[in-house]
Design a protein that fits this description.
The protein has twelve helices and 14 strands. The chain is α+β, with helices and mostly antiparallel strands. The protein has a six-stranded antiparallel sheet, with helices on both faces. Strands 1-5-6-4 form a four-stranded antiparallel sheet. Helix 3 runs antiparallel to helix 12 and helix 4 runs parallel beside helix 8.
Length: 402
């Protein structure tokens, strides 16, 4: 056989191997090539399959303040709205003591708009895990995660606790991320086996010794929640959180039919449902006459730790102020904070590039923003505008929606 012929055989064999490999990973590649462009991802939420619908009902808005009965000054609301508009916000809502004082949507959007949350799902996950702790499904924060992930039981990961996952202090290694389809982290977003990376992720440092914001910590909580409750993630959220707060639509992505939910990112829901969640938290866990979460567990959810005083159970805390918040001690990563917050109890659920839910219990203030992914969005600036605008007589009191 000629040299050219042998070369052709080698190339043909390589093509067959590559084709077989790609076919075995076809779900990933279908999702990879069908994902929406980055500037449309927030509204283009129907491209992914399969999903598990948490609930699908019409949205019930919060009560709306009269024009002459707002607790936040018109000037402050106008300034906050202008800031939100400057960042091409799809939705910007502000409530005081459970009553809407501002409801703004971008062009073509309204109360029915469903928006992808990006990593705001992590904050929701923190609330869901708090419900499971409060209801006694998870025995305690010291419960070993290996009880629910047997693959961890035979090595040093056996000491990792539920509390360490919630507080991002597990010691688990980071998955390598990048824009390339071949970056391992992309399998977390688009692959059809989420349990695989969780089962095989190694330790990078001793559990409980450092704060390290890590997607794997969040995803590992799926096995804990489904293992303790005996319910799917969507079913548990619906029965113990979404129904009690009167929320409407939400869905989560599954890695495959009947499989594992992606809970480290990307729940899709409506702005008003985030607001209802925030009002419940601002009111000490109470909504519509129901104590959804005990006050003690709400306080624990929103309390910092020795490893990171600006982080609770998958939620960020505005105080104490140091000019930056710790993102990863091992990687020496910190995110700048432009100024101290005007209230000591600001809590916020964070999604990529300015997707936010803010809760300030002492002021009865809840604010939601979704829009253009832009890391220049300033948490302290927007919240201090609103906090400074609350009339002195309205600054404290019950924030319930009862």
């Amino acid at each position: 056989m000629s040299l050219a012929g042998r070369f052709g055989l080698v190339v043909g064999a390589l093509l067959i191997v590559v084709a077989a490999w790609a076919f075995n990973d076809r779900v990933f590649w279908i999702r990879w090539f069908s994902q929406p462009p980055g500037d449309t991802v927030l509204l283009n939420w129907q491209w992914y399959q399969p999903v598990d619908v948490i609930k699908d009902e019409p949205s019930t808005p919060l009560p709306i303040a009269n024009d002459t009965d707002r607790a936040i000054s018109d000037d402050a609301l106008a300034e906050a709205k202008a800031y939100a508009e400057a960042f091409d916000s799809l939705a910007f809502l502000v409530a005081h003591k459970g009553v809407l004082e501002l409801e703004h949507y971008g062009p073509g959007q309204d109360r029915t708009t469903i928006i992808d949350s990006q990593s705001m799902h992590k904050g929701l996950l923190g609330v869901v895990a708090t419900v499971a702790l409060d209801q006694g499904f998870i025995p305690s924060l010291d419960t070993p995660v290996a009880t629910y992930i047997p693959a961890w039981a035979a090595d040093d990961r056996s000491t990792i606790t539920v509390g360490q996952l919630l507080e991002m202090a597990s010691g688990l290694a980071q998955v390598e991320y990048g824009t390339s389809a071949f970056a391992p982290g992309q399998r977390l977003f688009f692959g059809d086996d989420l349990d695989g990376p969780v089962n095989t992720i190694p330790l990078a440092f001793e559990p409980g010794t450092a704060f390290d914001f890590n997607h794997i910590n969040s995803q590992a909580l799926h096995a804990v929640l489904t293992g303790t409750t005996g319910m799917s993630y969507a079913a548990f959220v619906r029965e113990y959180l979404w129904d009690p707060i009167g929320a409407s639509f939400a869905q989560v992505r599954l890695d495959h039919d009947g499989g594992t939910a992606r809970i480290f990112c990307c729940v899709q829901t409506r702005p008003m449902d985030w607001m209802r969640l925030g009002v419940m938290l601002a009111n000490g866990g109470r909504m519509n006459g129901t104590q959804v979460i005990s006050e003690a567990w709400v306080d624990r959810l929103m309390s910092g730790t020795a490893l990171n005083p600006n982080f609770g159970f998958h939620v960020w805390l505005g105080s104490p102020y140091s000019g930056a918040r710790l993102v990863s001690e091992p990687q020496n990563r910190r995110a700048p904070v432009s100024a101290p917050f005007l209230a000591d109890d600001v809590m916020y659920v964070e999604g990529r590039g300015g997707q936010r839910l803010y809760v300030v219990p002492s002021a009865g203030l809840v604010t939601y923003r979704a829009g253009r992914i832009d890391f220049a969005w300033d948490d302290a600036k927007i919240m201090n505008i609103l906090l400074a605008g609350i009339q002195p007589s309205e600054a404290a009191g019950d924030s319930s929606n009862d």
